[in-house]
Fold this sequence. Notes:
Helix content is 65%, strand content 2%. It has two domains: 1-201, no CATH class; 205-398, no CATH class. It has helices at 13-17, 24-49, 58-83, 87-93, 106-132, 141-167, 174-201, 214-234, 240-258, 288-301, 306-331, 354-357, 359-362, 368-393, and strands spanning 97-99, 102-104. It starts with 12 loop residues before the first helix and ends in a 5-residue tail after the last helix. The chain has a two-stranded antiparallel ribbon with strand order 1-2. The protein is an all-alpha fold.
Amino acid sequence: MATTAYGLDVRDGWTRSMSGTVPWFLYAVLFASTSVIVGVTWDISWHRSIGRDTFWTPAHLAIYLGGIVAGQTCGWLALRLSFARGEAAGAERAATVRFWGFRAPLGAWVCIWGAFAMLTSAPFDDWWHNSYGLDVKILSPPHALLAAGIGAIQYGAMLMAVAWQNRAPVQPDAGADAMRSRLGFIYLVSAGLLLVLIATLATEYLQRWDMHRSLFYEVAAGIFPLMLVSTARASVSRWPATTTALVYMALMFVMLLVLPLFRAEPLLGPIYVHLDRFMPPDFPLFLAVPALLIDLAMRRLGRGHDWRLSALVALAFVVAFLAVQWPFADFMMTSWARNPIFIANRMPYSVDTAFQARWYTLNRPDNLRVGLSIALALAFVSARCGLWWGNWMSRVRR
């Protein structure tokens, strides 16, 4: 039976073979995506609390465990689909992409590339640290390669989940609806994990002392609508952008609470702040608020009005994000924020404590009229690109 580039006829054997059970390899790549992003967050805390240690830290092991699990799972899937015989195997191969004579789902190929990139970055990163010491920036050359590999694994997990979601039969049947709902939720969790990585890579421009600066809102407007809108457009769930944002916020909040439970001591000078616990990440950004407005706007306008929808999403995102993050910056300056939840009194060991008292003198409000206008323009472009990307993902079936 002939198939389109990204579509399968609902009558083919592959679609009929879908049962009420989510395939195990979707859970495996979701575990891999979770492992790498937990490891990344832990590793950043390790650098902020201890400094450079050996390559074999638990945080590094969590990162590369995720890469190995994703690579081996998707590699096994490619070999099985390439060499299996029989009518059932032929139906399965109809939902694959051919590459170098092998067959696998598109998302599996992306995960395999990501695993190779991650494993390649490992010795490169070790050599870099041994030669140059602690990173000054998050995106050093080996970290850029590692981030590309991690992003590929997380996006590959999204593609595998959305392909199964799009192939799930739409029938007035409780079992089919439950299956489609589970696949949709796995897709949104995968998207939320990728959102954590994107926010982490932009950390240097989105820290808690930047919330009164134009650049904070420009960076946020340029990256977050793209991810939230594209995820929502391809989803079958009711509140996709909100769910994606809540996955991001929940993971970061859990890491904020858990990391300080473990002991840590700085080992690399200069040491300005004595720490005896791991430094947690900042309190997560309130992305669920603009994400809720994005969901409402997309449900209101639907498809066929993408340019108007992009403008509405851009305005909603910038206004809502400003409305929650600006007063939160003021709150973080008060004594109410100096607790284990908001951690306003916690600083990395390498940062002078006097820096906290100079938040607004170092990062006082600048020309917000110009800055927010730029943020609106960036949010519009980001939302429009997100709709294009989401339209493509909603057609992925391989």
